[in-house]
Amino acid sequence: MAWQLIYTSAPRLLEAGRTGFGTVARHRAVSGMLAASVERFSQFARLPGHDPRRIVHTHRILILGSSTYHVLSCLQDAGSDYTGRTNHIAHHLIAEPREIRALASAGLTPADVLLAMPWRSSWSEGPRYLDPSEEINLASFTPSASNAWASVTGNPASAGILWSREALKGCYLITPPGINTLELFRESLLVEPSQAWQTRFTTCLEPNDDVADFRWVALTSASPMRTQVETTSRLVLDLTAPATLPEPPKKQAPPPLIETVNHGTPAPAHPMVASVPAPLPSSPAAPAPISSMGSWSPEPRRKAAKSNRSFIGISLIIASIMIVVVLGALLRQRNLKVQARAEYEQKIDSTWQNHQLILSETRRLLEEQTDLGEGEALLKSHENFFRGMQQALQQPGSPTELPLPAQTQDDLEDLKKRLAEWTALHVNPWADLQSGQATVTAQGILEAYHKWQQSRTSTWNRLSTFLSLKDLPPPGEDVLQSLMTAARDALRSAKPAHDSRPSWAKVFALPGAPQNSSALEALQWLKLWGELENPVASSDAAAQTAASDASLPEWLRAWVAEKKQPHTSKNAPRMAVKTDDKPAQKAPEPAIVIEDADAVSATNGIYLYLLQPSEEPAGKIDGLQVSPDMQLFVGTAWERHPPPDGKPQPKEGELKKWMGVSSDDSEKLKFSPTLLAQLTQMIAFSKDGMLTAFPEELRKSPDGVRIVARSKDGVKVLFDLRLIPISSASSRPMLTQAIESTVINAAAVTLKLPPGFLSRLHFVGQQELRYALRHDGPANQKKFFTLKSTGDSSFQVIPPVIQNGSVVSRKEIENKIKVLEAGIAKDIEYLAENESSKESLKIKTEKRDRYEKSKAEKENQLQALQTQLQSLEGNAPPHFDLLPGNFILALEQPNQIELCRLNVVPPASPSPLKLTNP
């Protein structure tokens, strides 16, 4: 029976969390390594010249470790996939040698199977493992007759051309249109049926194919791969010109029978009967000798019987011993295999514990290795990666090589990307704060430092998806040392703003900053700066003291020199100027207020949409307020859109205006970045407010897309649409506004946001929005709060739980519950897969015990957390001193997306609600 594997494009693949092209169905007997090898030759090219309606049949012999597999494949076009793009399907049959031997003895060839198999042309089901009943009985296929070679060359004997001495080294077959190449191969395989299943072939050469995988390679006369044929050393058989084909090899006649000729005696006219020699006459029996022992005589027959019985007994004993020895050897070999498997799995456990790994997909890949030799080599290559990973975590500023193993899973590749992000954050993070740039300010340095810390926190949190990490480690002294040096050089290079001394003091007092020569020197400058600003006489004394210090910055020395000069007073009296009577005032005309899309006071809707990888958003976003003559502004998701100022070109970091290209009678509103843009580069909306076309270039932008629509006169904002990749949405707030929120009820801890702000938000795809509050600070000071809506933009803060002297929020408990529930579901899945596996009973029992123990531990933890969550309602409200500060307003679903920064102030604060741009 042959196994099946089906490869195509689908919204969900068999491997959890993956979309696009991949395996959607296979038998469980197909291991992960075997499936990965088969997936490699499942590509269907879309090159000019390749007929998209072609069907590719191949026969490959795949060797993995000590195992051999015959793979029979059919690749063909499958229409459009779930995103509307081109799709194809690769359907594979995988057979073991014992199945192939039965087919060979029955006279079936690989071409017979490929011709008779009902191949799938599409896949509309969900991903699944195929049942054992869906294994294919290849012996049930029957061969079909054909005369393909006669129709091409006029001579059926031409089928033997593929067995010529040159063709056996490998050959190309150029086929004319309308010829079934598979029938040609079938007729040729029947010429040498004993070699049929050792012959690898393809009916159409694909760009990703390795020609060395095949002995016979066919391609059409119009194939774009013809250039490869022209430079090859292989034999080329052009069936479009039959006259150029070589003569088929002639079968050698059997050797003639060799006859012995006797020249001395003439041959008889008829066969002679051989004479049979007569038996020799037996001599008369001699009389038996007279026994000297009376009437007793020996009985040789009885003695022989006794000897035979002894021989049989000895033989049985020897056979029993041999059986015992063989059984003992087999049992010992089995025990050794079981012991080796247990030691291998123990090594995997040790690796996961030593490196604090969570990589479930990678662990499963290693545990499913059937060949322990290959498994040991694969585990070793993973351990090399994990050692490099530890170095990248502990010394992120040092370059580290992280070569991926030969076979990987998605979670390991994602971990490598996160590690690369972590390392990139620590390699020259202050490159923009170089000496000599007059634009570097203290506020800019502080903002760069805080953004860098936020990026470190976000990247560390993403790493915790793959690793059991502790709290975020503080920045290394070398990183802060380079920041202090860059800040000192910036302070030296240009005269700072008059009122920026407090900000510069904050720079050189950052937590963990080393008090080295750079910081101490800058602090001395700031001290002198403060003394010079002091209006009392001591500033003159400070100037006199610092006059001889040549190490001061140039701007500070100039100030010192100015202080040393004598003061001259100019007290000239001022003359009063008499003004004429004011003219009569006209009534002011009402001013036209142009709406600011980035202001909290704006009333337009804000539509947020999370883009999945390779997702097409067209057709999924509707309800937008559109106008036939509206203006459109486009840029990255975090670029600003202030009120139009009439200038033709926007400033750096602002959205750019796109041109409208729609006519009045058009059913769609189209906008283009340039006059000569193609249709695929345009954004289009239907007249009822649906996004109907979206450029691929914008969809692939790592910074997302922001689209703001304004009325024809540019006064009113119609809508603000932001499409943000899900990978970017977890690294920074989705909105650029920093909102100030007031505690209006300190006893119940109720927050008030600007009126109408939350009602403007429309999170596409989410029916109900639930909010949470997260502290925006160092990891060791983070606070988490759940928010309960009490009205329009008002929330009651649900208090945290005090557990063992530390603050534990409701949100943390709910997150832990979700993780445990997912882990229990995974254990149940592993238990089901373990029961249906083909491993030995002992290994299955060991795995079952381990999964059940893990499941029981998670269930106990889940019950304790659920009890703890139920007891939250009886806790006292939090003290107010827990709240003031910078927070992140987040959405609980999906994925705790950060919405905007929130500055929480006490109720007595006189500051009105306002918007500040970071």
UniProtKB/TrEMBL annotation:
Residues 240-301, 564-586, 839-859 are annotated as: Disordered. The chain crosses the membrane at residues 311-331. InterPro entries: GAP1-N2. It holds the Pfam family GAP1-N2. Residues 1-134 form the GTPase-associated protein 1 N-terminal domain. Keywords: Membrane, Transmembrane, Transmembrane helix. It comes from the Bacteria. Residues 245-257, 278-287 have a biased composition (Pro residues). This is GTPase-associated protein 1 N-terminal domain-containing protein.
